[in-house]
Every structure is written in structure tokens, then in C-alpha cells.
Amino acid sequence: MAANDALVLILMVTAAVLMISFWKQILILMLLALVTVFCFGLYSVASNIPT
């Protein structure tokens, strides 16, 4: 049980360090994903409007 807890702790620390060192890249990826979803949403709304 203790070894399992230590493994989880190490994984959490590693994930935190990776997030801290790559937060800019993660932020850019999240912004790109949000913009893409937003554009798809606008496109679907615009294509549903009868002309």
C-alpha cells in the first residue's frame, strides 16, 4: 500500500512539473481547441439558418 501511495505521489509530482514547465504550450493548445470548437459551432448555426 505504501509503495502504491509513493507511486501515485511521484506521478502527481511529475504531472505538476510537466504542467508548470509546459503551461504555455498547454494554454495555447487549449485556446486553439476552444477557437476550433467555437468556429465549428458558428458554422453549424450559420448553415442551419435558412437563406
Task: Offer a quick outline of the entry.
This protein is mainly α and 51 residues long.
**Structural class by secondary-structure content:** mainly alpha
Detail the poorly predicted runs. none
Overall 3D shape: elongated
Number of helices: 2
C-alpha end-to-end distance: 65 Å
Strand share of the residues?
A: under 5%
Helix content: over 70%
User: How many runs of DSSP E, i.e. beta strands?
Assistant: 0
User: What sequence of helices (H) and strands (E) makes up the elements?
Assistant: HH
**Average of pLDDT:** 91
Indicate the radius of gyration in whole angstroms: 20 Å
The biggest sheet, with number of strands, parallel, antiparallel or mixed sense and barrel status, is: none
List the helices and strands and how they pair.
Elements: H1 2-21, H2 23-48
Q: Any key phrases for this structure?
A:
single chain; about 50 residues; mainly alpha; 2 helices; about 90% helix
